[in-house]
């Protein structure tokens, strides 16, 4: 779906800090959503955690930087890092170029895949959440 110029695919789940999650079998693929990458500007660095790093829902586990912004990545679910997108080490702008495709960031092995159901999903919840954040960031 398109919301005020931001592409927010219907099939994805979103966590409150503007990272998306997609299920891929028993694995969750995670990346930065279109709103966050546009707000941040050109991404210059992505911290890539090691395979097996334990994740706890809502706890920070990585950083993303642009020329004007430092962002924290929070775990959307309990689990562990299966892998990180190593291409981002040399081409972090893949996030800006294709945030839902080649710019994916992490593959997560969740402890309980049902936790993804607690994330923001579907037009009826994504649209008001995004519109509220658009309004909030325009004020800043």
TrEMBL record:
The organism's taxonomic lineage, starting at the top: Bacteria, Pseudomonadati, Thermodesulfobacteriota, Desulfomonilia, Desulfomonilales
Full protein name: Glycine cleavage system H protein (Lipoate-binding)
Pfam families the record matches: GCV_H
Domain of life: Bacteria
CDD domains named among the record's database cross-references: GCS_H
PANTHER family: GLYCINE CLEAVAGE SYSTEM H PROTEIN, GLYCINE CLEAVAGE SYSTEM H PROTEIN-RELATED
CC annotations in GO: cytosol; glycine cleavage complex
GO biological process, one term: protein lipoylation
Keyword tags: Lipoyl
């Amino acid at each position: 779906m398109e919301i005020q110029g931001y592409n927010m695919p219907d099939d994805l789940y979103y966590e409150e800090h503007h990272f998306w999650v997609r299920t891929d079998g028993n694995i969750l693929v995670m990346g930065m959503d279109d709103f966050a990458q546009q707000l941040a500007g050109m991404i210059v660095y992505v911290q890539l955690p090691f395979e097996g790093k334990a994740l706890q829902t809502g706890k920070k586990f990585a950083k993303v930087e642009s020329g004007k912004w430092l962002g924290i990545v929070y775990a959307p679910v309990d689990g562990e890092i299966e892998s990180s997108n190593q291409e981002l080490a040399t081409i972090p702008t893949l996030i800006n170029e294709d945030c839902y495709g080649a710019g994916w960031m992490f593959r997560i092995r969740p402890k309980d895949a049902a936790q993804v159901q607690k994330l923001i999903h579907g037009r009826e919840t994504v649209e008001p959440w995004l519109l509220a954040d658009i309004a909030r960031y325009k004020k800043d």
